[in-house]
Design brief:
This protein is an alpha/beta fold and about 240 residues long. It has 9 helices and 9 strands. Strand 4 and strand 5 form a beta hairpin. The chain is globular, with a radius of gyration of 18 Å. It binds ligand BV8.
């Protein structure tokens, strides 16, 4: 029996959705990129140059993320996934686990995750210990080539084909808490428009891609996201 295609909503999230959970954003005043140079801590070259500095940067963020609590915006998206009569895919640029802590299941970490470890020698992946050391050896091949399973600048984000397929079957694309600076994520709204999706931005302030959205709701995510979800779920 032919199943009519259910509605699909693809939601891109960025650091702004976790700001009210106490996790720093990147480009806001005093953000992470004001404290560390991207080149030093979020590129393969930076890791090769000073692996201790990079492991230390991610150990600090991992410790913070483990303690962080999801906020009303994460919880609203988990409710949307549970109650919406269709598919809801969260594509997150964030490496914290707050969407999952809030109960979301259909989450794609396109930039990796702090709770993931990767062996640069054999590409084995495992759950990262709270603290990673340069001297750690891979549980699979024993090489001392372990790194956080994070997508750095110049590296291919995860799940690009899956994201493309989701956009092709989506009727709505929402972008939440992202400045629209980092590609290819910042290019998703243009692709969504080309595919005929309705597009909405929920952000503290207009993002770089603001003009590409059909609709925008500016304000704190813990205010704008629950209101938006309530409207979507209204019978
Ligand atoms: C790649 C992991 C190629 C690290 C990150 C064109 C096309 C393709 C690539 C490029 C291109 N032009 C340039 C590039 C290269 C580069 C890039 O985009 N550079 C930028 C800086 C110009 N892109 C890449 O290198 C990507 N890889 O292209 O590979 C390739 C091709 C083939 C084969 C191999 C390789 C990889 C990019 C991924 C880098 N890794 N993260 C880590 O997290 O430590 S990116 C990093 O930025 C984070 O993931 C972060 O999530 C992401 C985006 O930042 P935002 O989430 O938007 O955070 P930001 O602080 O900027 O903004 C926060 C927003 O929230 C603000 O707007 C603020 O107003 C709002 N806000 C604040 N508080 C609240 C709020 N909103 C609501 N409520 C609040 N309370």
């Amino acid at each position: 029996m032919f199943e009519p295609m259910k509605n699909c909503i693809t939601i891109l999230t960025g650091a702004g959705i976790s700001a009210e959970s106490g996790l720093g954003t990147f480009r806001d005043e005093g953000g992470l990129w004001a404290q560390q140079r991207i080149e030093d801590v979020a590129t393969p070259e930076g890791f090769a140059r000073n692996p201790e500095l990079v492991q230390g940067f991610y150990n600090a963020r991992r410790a913070q993320a483990v303690e962080a609590v999801p906020n009303a915006a994460h919880e609203a998206l988990a409710r949307l996934e549970a109650e919406y009569d269709g598919e809801v895919l969260i594509v997150t640029q964030n490496v914290d686990g707050l969407h999952e802590k809030a109960g979301s299941r259909n989450v794609l970490h396109m930039h990796g995750a702090l709770n993931g470890a990767l062996c640069a020698a054999c590409e084995h992946r495992w759950e990262a210990p709270l603290v990673m050391h340069v001297a750690d050896s891979c549980p699979n091949c024993a090489a001392q080539a372990t790194r956080p399973d994070i997508v750095w600048f110049g590296e291919m984000p995860y799940g690009m084909e899956q994201i493309d397929e989701a956009l092709q079957r989506s009727t709505l694309f929402a972008s939440i808490g992202t400045s629209g600076n980092v590609y290819p994520a910042a290019g998703f709204v243009a692709e969504a428009r080309r595919l005929g999706c309705a597009t909405i931005e929920l952000n503290l302030e207009p993002s770089e891609g603001f003009s590409l959205f059909d609709e925008a709701r500016h304000g704190a995510a813990t205010q704008t996201v629950p209101a938006w979800v309530a409207k979507l779920l209204k019978p």
